[in-house]
Specification:
Strand content of chain B: 15-25%
Helix content of chain A: 25-40%
Number of strands of chain B: 7
Oligomer: heterodimer
Structural class of chain B: alpha/beta
Largest interface: A-B, 77 and 57 residues
Number of domains of chain B: 1
Radius of gyration of chain B: 19 Å
Largest sheet of chain B: 7 strands, mixed
CATH topology of chain B: Aconitase, domain 4
CATH superfamily of chain B: Aconitase, domain 4
Order of helices and strands of chain B: EHHEHEHEHEEEHHH
Chain lengths: 467, 211
């Protein structure tokens, strides 16, 4: 019987299998940021331990960094302390760090692939749930907690039980205007935020393989919002050409050898999956989340649900609480919801393709009068540089957007970028939880083009009708 | 890590599905570089009227009277009773740190998000999965009787109610062993150093670009 993509990569990384079925899994790449690592480094110090393999680990600060003028430093003392702690820990343990003023600094999940630190068939971890992003390269990429960050630093391994594998296929061609983000939200809307719990997901089918690497990263990024341990896409020409000639990717003879191995990273035709779901690309309409969980999502053409249609009492309670928090009424058409702020960026949608798509929408137009703030926050210094080389920064600023320095920014509002209570945001980020973008803030998750269009119109619009 | 063996503890009900880690411990508290001190900020936005900031003294902050953990009958609770998909969202271990710092060493729910579930074991917290219907029953019993306590026996893998009804739960043998003995799993893994080095030597031949 054939193997799944997941099985192939997993098998190559098993160091030892224990009697109870748990395994010691070798980790090739460990990305580190300032929020989930200080206690892990402290643990190493207290136990007198050293990192097992320093070259496997690369760090960058992203959650706390200001997106305004970096020359001013970080004014929030607590944020500054955390970023300085990362600098000091990397210095002490000899770990490569792209610091706040390095052009390569950025959201850890944008920086990694951009530098060629993420290669097909790797095992990748980071103390961050959106590590699932890197499954776009046919790697097993998992978010871990701080204790496991310490465990990986000290041993280069994780103790894991093999998850089940679910294949989600999207067949046919995606209609115009539908992005990897819409596919991700569509799937989460179908299977729910716990639909993938206990599973590794493989995204497959014509529509998925037609996505760019950026699109695949947006999709795998949100595998965690479906509760999955990780999300993956098979390796193909798009993967290989993205990885080629990146600073940390293999060169010359090693490249030839690597490429030959990577070309084997797909699920065999007779591979068996523990679960399988199939959707048609033609069913997917631009998505807008309406509630306080990513599964509370609908096509832009729909209306806010009627509580009477909830499947059970627990869901009805959840919807009712979400409507109250979001300040929305049942049966309101989504296109009638007006917004106060726009956020374009994050590990989900902070890559060059995302800014190109958003810039194409806002070009020559102005942000609506009711929109108080429209932020475009590149995912990394290099994304920012590339966008500026293409003149995208000017398109944004002329339209009334603020063009910022790279970081996580208003995706989770750990820095100064946040929503005030009651403010409503069209956001390209990944979570619409209560308070996620600021206490009392109301988040609607959308694709970059949809966020840009909402910023110009002042309310949600169907990007397929945009001219 | 403190071992977990048995617990007879007061139960506090958190009657919401999909409680996410942003709700458990909001992002501003993630700026701390310590493992402790998160307890006063557990469920901060649901618990207090004002916006919490790191290192704030919470003694005199205005509390939301309708929030369950603010009710006198649940003070001192050690078992958190929750609904499906508890702990979804981010990987922040600050969530179990806050739960532990607030005095809880056991969470019972019909299901947990993977990363949160795993993080609990690293901190001496026992997450127990029980059937939806049983959890529903526990919610009802808890609401009906002030001082409602459950008895948890990790070695026997049982949860017992005050009326003597007992439910068994599943747990991985390795996790159970670590929790019962308060073991540091880094130390255990380092006992396999030779296996790790040998794996690396083989892998370096097959995929030299990874080294």
């Amino acid at each position: 019987m054939g193997q799944t993509l997941f099985d192939k990569v997993w098998q190559q990384h098993v160091v030892k299998e224990n009697d109870d079925g748990s395994m010691l899994l070798y980790i090739d790449r460990h990305l580190v940021h300032e929020v989930t690592s200080p206690q892990a480094f402290e643990g190493l110090r207290l136990a007198g331990r050293k990192p097992w393999k320093i070259s496997a680990t690369v760090a960058t600060p992203d959650h706390n960094v200001p997106t305004t003028d970096r020359a001013l430093g970080i004014t929030d003392v607590v944020s500054r302390t955390q970023v300085e702690a990362l600098d000091a820990n990397c210095e002490e343990f000899g770990i490569t760090e792209f610091g706040m003023n390095d052009i390569r600094q950025g959201v850890v999940h944008v920086m990694g692939p951009e530098q060629g630190l993420i290669l097909p068939g790797m095992t990748v971890v980071c103390g961050d749930s959106h590590t699932s992003t890197h499954g776009a390269f046919g790697s097993i990429a998992m978010g871990i907690g701080t204790s496991e960050v310490e465990h990986v630093l000290a041993t280069q391994c994780l103790i894991q039980k093999k998850p089940k594998v679910m294949r989600i296929s999207v067949n046919g061609a995606l209609p115009a205007g539908i992005t990897g983000k819409d596919v991700a939200l569509f799937i989460i809307g179908k299977i729910g935020t716990a639909g993938g719990t206990g599973y590794a997901l493989e995204f497959a089918g014509e529509a998925i393989m037609a996505l760019s690497m950026e699109g695949r990263m947006s999709l795998c990024n949100m595998a965690i919002e479906a509760g999955a341990r990780c999300g993956m896409v098979a390796v193909d020409d798009a993967t290989i050409s993205y990885v080629k000639d990146r600073p940390y990717s293999p060169k010359a003879e090693e490249w030839q050898k690597a490429e030959a191995m990577w070309r084997e990273l797909y699920s065999d035709a007779d591979a068996r999956f523990d679960a399988e779901l199939v959707y048609n690309a033609s069913e997917i309409v631009p998505q807008v989340s309406w509630g306080t969980s990513p599964e509370m999502v609908l096509p832009v053409t729909a209306s806010i649900p009627d509580l009477a249609t909830a499947k059970d009492e627990v869901q009805r309670e959840g919807w009712s609480r979400a409507l109250a928090y979001m300040g929305l009424k049942e049966n309101t058409p989504i296109a009638e919801i007006s917004i106060d702020k726009v956020f374009i960026g994050s590990c989900t949608n902070g890559r060059i393709e995302d800014f190109r798509a958003a810039a194409a929408v806002v070009k020559g137009k102005k942000v609506a009068a009711n929109v108080k703030l429209a932020l475009a926050v590149p995912g990394s210094g290099l994304v920012k540089q590339q966008a500026e080389a293409e003149g995208l920064d000017l398109i944004f600023t002329e339209a009334g957007f603020e063009w910022r320095e790279p970081g996580c920014s208003m995706c989770l509002a750990m820095n100064a970028d946040r929503l005030e209570p009651g403010e409503r945001c069209a956001s390209t980020s990944n979570r619409n939880f209560e308070g996620r973008q600021g206490m009392g803030g109301r988040t609607h998750l959308v694709s970059p083009a949809m966020a840009a269009a909402a910023g110009i119109a002042g309310h949600f619009v169907d990007i397929r009708d945009w001219s | 890590m403190q071992p977990f063996t048995t617990l007879n503890g007061l139960v506090a009900p958190m009657d919401r599905a999909n409680v996410d880690t942003d709700a458990i411990i909001p992002k501003q508290f993630l700026k701390s570089i310590k493992r402790t001190g998160y307890g006063p900020f557990l469920f901060d936005e649901w618990r207090y009227e004002d916006r919490g900031e790191p290192e704030m003294d919470c003694t005199n902050r205005p509390k939301r009277a309708d929030f369950v953990l603010n009710q006198p009958r649940y003070q001192g609770a050690q078992i958190l009773l929750a609904r499906e998909n508890f702990g979804c969202g981010s990987s922040r271990e600050h969530a179990p740190w806050a739960i532990l710092d607030c005095g809880f060493t056991c969470v019972i729910a019909p299901s947990f998000a993977d990363i949160f579930y795993n993080n609990c074991f690293k901190n001496g917290i026992l997450p127990i999965v029980l059937d939806d219907a049983i959890v529903d029953q526990l919610f009802k019993e808890c609401a009906a009787a002030e001082g409602y306590a459950l008895n948890v026996d990790l070695d026997a893998q049982t949860v017992s109610t005050p009326l003597g009804q007992s439910f068994s739960f599943d747990i991985d043998a390795f996790r159970k062993h670590c929790l019962l003995n308060g073991l540091d799993d880094i130390g255990l893994t380092l006992q396999d150093s030779d296996a790790i080095s040998s794996y690396e030597a083989d892998r370096k031949q097959a995929a030299p670009w990874l080294f």
